[in-house]
Amino acid sequence: MLITLGRHILRYLATIFVASVAVFALMRVVPGDPAAVALGVSATPELIAAKREALGLDQPLIAQYLSWVDGMLRGDFGLSLTSGQDISPLVVDRLQVSLILVGSAMALALAAAIPVGTWVAMRHRRADGIAITALSQVGIAIPSFLAGILLVSLFAVRLGWAPANGWVPPDQGVGAFLQRLVMPVCALAAVQGAIMTRYVRSAVLEILSEDFIRTARAKGLSTWQALLRHGLRNAALPVITVTGVQLASLVIGAVVIEQVFVLPGLGSMLLDAVSTRDLTTVQTIVMVLVLLTLAVNMVVDLIALALDPRTGR
């Protein structure tokens, strides 16, 4: 078990290394000189050369990469090329917003998808099961940003029940925080809930056809009893795997929702940095998103390994 765990950790450390090299290399092949971008169009060659030296861009690429990684490990993400500010506290603040949004949306999606998907699987030949399955297909087809626009149009513009956009930190008022969080969370959770409902349904249907379920029923258990006692643990493995994949995609997909609801998350910060060609900020945010994605995948793999040690072979 420890050997398997160590192998998983080493694999993800190697993946992080490869990802960091890829992100660093991609930022270096983007056309344009970061020093010239930071100084503007009126900069002289002398000022550009001085700025390159101040940013360390005159160093060999390997030295630049090691300096960047060392700063990331120490929590120092560098200075913004456009504003000259330290981006470390900004990234931390924006990351908190994105994590609250994504975590709440996935928790809500799973809270709805697990019971609904199980119910649909148990009644897949009944009218209500077929209707819910069709409804989940519609939910999958609707983009999250469109769901967000529809929610704003109905609950903010027409009914006036909640603010259309903006963000209030929870320490400045829980009520105002929840009012501004509920619609973006529901917009993300609606699509993810529909997707997860389909996966839960498929996983439960597959388990219901297994021999051990038929054996349990032959011993006198009802279908629900057999599923609850013997089937859910086995059905959880593929659902957890898919949850990890969807959670990773949700981190990236939240970029659009943050724009729709004007939320100060990593996604909006990334788009602002791209529009101003702030390559230092772009490089940092992309790497943070990669680390979040890899961390989610590692946690999912470890949970799957705990549920079924055979997955580590």
From TrEMBL:
Any single GO molecular-function term of the entry would be: dipeptide transmembrane transporter activity
* Predominant location category: membrane
SUPFAM superfamilies the record matches: MetI-like
Q: Which GO terms of the cellular component aspect does the record hold?
A: plasma membrane
Keywords in alphabetical order: Cell membrane, Membrane, Transmembrane, Transmembrane helix, Transport
Membrane topology classification:
Multi-pass membrane protein
The places in or outside the cell where this protein is found are:
Cell membrane
Q: PROSITE patterns given for it?
A: ABC_TM1
Give the family, as the similarity comment puts it: Belongs to the binding-protein-dependent transport system permease family.
Q: What is this protein called?
A: ABC transporter permease
